[in-house]
UniProtKB/TrEMBL annotation:
Domain of life: Eukaryota
Lineage start: Eukaryota, Metazoa, Ecdysozoa, Arthropoda, Hexapoda
Pfam families (alphabetical): Glyco_transf_92
Enzyme Commission number(s) from the entry: 2.4.1.-
Name listed for the protein in its UniProt record: Glycosyltransferase family 92 protein
Membrane-topology descriptor: Single-pass membrane protein
Gene source species: Drosophila virilis (Fruit fly)
Length: 565
């Protein structure tokens, strides 16, 4: 009886299933019928996702070429008057002896010059002004004024003038004091003072310059004369006038000083420093840097992304300029160039003076102070001062460290003593709640002792006085009323250097220095916003997967270890 009942139920279920199945089939059939009568859309693909934009205009191309080859004066060349000069000749585009893209080679007697850039200098404190300075590498090390360089001339080419004005090179200033010899080449600044009065307007700025050994020689080199005036100041006349300089000489009180930062060739091919770069740039901005100029070598793709994002979103704040090394180290081939830079460290250091001085001379009319830093260095004002403008004002008043008081009112530079903030990987985090990816905010432990006045110091250099820049201090300044650089005592400011000290004894007994926390929470917020925007922050599933991966790896290693015993 019971068995019969359950049989009935089973049969019943089977019948219902069959009915349901039939209904579904009917439904599907009907639907497919509907589909069959609907017109099928045929898509015929006739185009690919290629770039269909127009060829850039000639003006746009000139701009692009100028960005690629900053010293090559194509724009100026295309405007030359058609007449041939009786003295010298402007070389044609292919009549120039290029070297490694950004340099031009000139042989003078037994010397080889690699020209990199030329800059118009009419700063009020320069006694030889106005002059054109030519930045070059030369295969000769010599103490200033001890050696006689062969006689050379600058042919200065002016807009709308057929004939050049030819002046003697009056000075070779070697931007390196510490010796050396062949096969190295040495950074050198040539002075070409413009004639004070000879039919030309003293203030007229030459457009191009060639270096020659005879006054009317036909040159095989030609550089654009850089003159990047301060266009933000609207009451300046189109030509530089002495009045402009006077205004600059006495900056209005309460007018914030303008700062910019020059960074050498960015050579970070295998180490991804992108998060450090973001934190550093945001702190530079908070301290008052109006612009940071980088020179391109080879960067990790993530760093390139960071730099490109800043260039796109704050084009006035970040700039990336092309660069190669003299002595012909080919800079195409990222892996080779990185290797070649490491092969001869002395060559690499000598070459660093080129971006520093190029950056300084391009920006000296637009900024009051220039800093030359690496991305692990920060000039940190202390106490209640939180920006460089207030720091410079204070630095004028404080004593010069370990120096007797001198009768000075102006200084070439203000320098700050170095102190190391090492990694301390074995020590526990200072801020348990703060992620480690805020590197400087987390690394508040530093060595107890500051370096002396000279070792690894960094400065803010006055654009009114400085002439030749080395990475640690100026090698030449005007000598026109200003004193040598002042070392600001550590009560007021210090140079944070986020790396390991050379002297490992100093690692013992670090102290906590949380001065950087005065920039909180702004610094953390800005850095976080960049991390988020650029996709550096992993989502939860990525974190969990990484955790699982880590645990599996640990287990595997443990198994292997057990298996081995
Ligand atoms: C060039 O010649 C001078 C004088 O003959 C010599 O003192 C100097 O070392 C030479 N320089 C180079 C780079 O060969
Ligand atoms: C000015 O020009 C004259 C004639 O062209 C020349 O003799 C003289 O040396 C020039 N002076 C300067 C300072 O260049
Ligand atoms: C520097 O900081 C002081 C004090 O916080 C502030 O009053 C001043 O406006 C700041 N200057 C600049 C240029 O940011
Ligand atoms: C910092 O403190 C000093 C002394 O108390 C004061 O003179 C100065 O104006 C303060 N500076 C700032 C930027 O607040
Ligand atoms: C400091 O220099 C000023 C101007 O050059 C001069 O008048 C003053 O006497 C000097 N003071 C000392 C102590 O040398
Ligand atoms: C290293 O630092 C320690 C501690 O400051 C110091 O005593 C020692 O002289 C330093 N060594 C060198 C070689 O500078
Ligand atoms: C950084 O580089 C790594 C390795 O190429 C890549 O997996 C990661 O997505 C990059 N991060 C960002 C934010 O682009």
């Amino acid at each position: 009886m019971h068995a019969n009942h359950s049989r009935l139920i089973k049969i019943f279920l089977v019948i219902i299933s069959i009915k349901l199945f039939l209904i579904l089939v009917l439904f599907a059939y009907n639907n497919s019928n509907v589909n069959r009568f609907r017109p099928r859309r045929m898509v015929f693909i006739d185009e690919l996702l290629i770039d269909k934009s127009e060829t850039p205009s000639w003006q746009e191309r000139l701009k692009l070429i100028r960005e690629e080859m900053p010293s090559f004066p194509l724009e100026e060349l295309t405007h030359r008057p058609p007449l041939k000069p009786s003295c010298g000749l402007v070389p044609s585009v292919l009549g120039i002896d290029y070297s490694n893209d950004y340099w031009q080679m000139v042989r003078v007697a037994n010397l080889t010059y690699y020209l990199f850039g030329a800059y118009y200098d009419n700063r009020e404190k320069m006694t030889e002004a106005p002059l054109v300075r030519v930045l070059t590498m030369i295969n000769l090390y010599a103490k200033h004024h001890e050696v006689k360089y062969p006689e050379t001339f600058c042919q200065l080419w002016y807009k709308n003038r057929v004939e050049p004005i030819v002046v003697s090179v009056t000075d070779h200033r070697l931007i390196w004091f510490w010796g050396g010899g062949p096969p190295q080449v040495f950074p050198t600044l040539l002075s070409c003072p413009l004639p004070k009065k000879n039919g030309t307007n003293v203030e007229e700025v030459p457009e191009m310059v060639s270096l020659v050994t005879e006054r009317c020689e036909k040159a095989r080199n030609l550089l654009r004369v850089v003159y990047e005036r301060d266009v933000s100041n609207t009451d300046i006349l189109p030509t530089a006038s002495p009045k402009e300089q006077d205004q600059k000489d006495n900056p209005k009180p309460n007018k914030p000083l303008r700062f910019m930062v020059c960074v050498k060739a960015m050579d970070f091919l295998y180490v991804d420093m992108s998060s450090r770069l973001i934190e550093w740039l945001e702190l530079m901005r908070l301290l008052g840097a109006g612009k940071v100029v980088f020179y391109d070598a080879q960067m990790h793709p993530n760093m390139t992304r960071v730099i490109n994002d800043y260039i796109e979103n704050s084009p006035d704040f970040v700039e990336l300029r092309p660069l190669s090394m003299s002595r012909g180290v080919p800079h195409t081939g990222r892996h080779f160039h990185h290797y070649a830079m490491g092969v001869d460290n002395f060559n690499r250091i000598l070459n660093e003076m080129i971006p520093y001085n190029d950056c300084f001379y391009r920006n000296m009319y637009k900024y009051d102070y220039v800093g030359v830093f690496d991305i692990d260095e920060i000039i940190m004002p202390l106490g209640n001062v939180t920006n460089w403008s207030d720091l410079i004002e204070l630095a004028h008043k404080v004593p010069d460290y370990e120096r007797a008081p001198a009768n000075c009112t102006n200084w070439a530079s203000f320098c700050f003593r170095n102190v190391y903030f090492p990694r301390y990987p074995e020590r526990p985090k200072v801020y348990k709640e703060l992620p480690s990816f805020y590197y400087m905010l987390q690394h508040v432990e530093r060595v107890a002792e500051h370096c002396d006045r000279y070792s690894a110091t960094k400065c803010l250099h006055s654009t009114r006085y400085v002439i030749g820049l080395h990475n640690h201090f100026p090698l030449f300044h005007a000598g026109n009323g200003e004193c040598d650089p002042k070392s600001v005592p550590i009560e007021f400011a210090q140079l944070h250097h986020y790396r390991e000290p050379d002297n490992k004894t100093r690692l013992i007994d670090p102290i906590i220095d949380d001065n950087i926390w005065r920039f909180q929470p702004t610094l953390q917020q800005r850095v976080y916003a960049k991390y988020k925007k650029l996709g550096f922050l992993p989502d939860i599933s990525q974190v969990i997967n990484a955790e699982i991966q880590r645990r599996n790896d640990d287990e595997r290693k443990l198994q292997e270890a057990i298996g081995m015993t």
